[in-house]
Amino acid sequence: MATALNSDVNDLSYEQARDELIRVVAELEQGSTTLEESLALWERGEAAAKRCEEWLLGAKARLEVARSTNTE
């Protein structure tokens, strides 16, 4: 279930999602957040990681199409 915090992740570019994931990890590593804040950050990080994976899978599919087109 997407939260309001995570809904805008779907609009991020790969680079933006990657940077957001880096930011979230750094904040979690500091350990200065409450449990509730940590959970929200974790969810945000999971959403950012998923967005990165979507971009990478899309790029892989495009490369496979380009390769198959060039070998025919």
Give short descriptive properties of this protein.
mainly alpha, 72 residues
Explain the overall architecture.
- With 72 residues, the chain is mainly alpha-helical.
- It has one domain (14-71).
- 81% of the residues lie in helices and 0% in strands.
- The chain contains three helices and no strands.
- The chain has helices spanning 4-7, 14-30, 35-71.
- Helix 2 runs antiparallel to helix 3.
- It is elongated and about 55 Å long.
- The N and C termini lie far apart (43 Å).
How widely separated are the two ends? Answer: 43 Å
Coarse structural class: mainly alpha
Strand content: under 5%
SSE pattern: HHH
Q: Portion of residues in helices?
A: over 70%
Major β-sheet, in short?
Answer: none
Low-confidence stretches: none
Radius of gyration: 16 Å
Shape: elongated
Number of strands: 0
Task: Tell me the number of helical segments per DSSP (H or I, 4 or more residues long).
Answer: 3
> What integer is the average pLDDT?
91
Domain module tally? 1
SSE inventory with pairings:
Blueprint (H helix, E strand, L loop, with lengths): L3 H4 L6 H17 L4 H37 L1
Give a brief rundown of this model:
This protein is an all-alpha fold and 72 residues long. The protein has helices at residues 4-7, 14-30, 35-71.
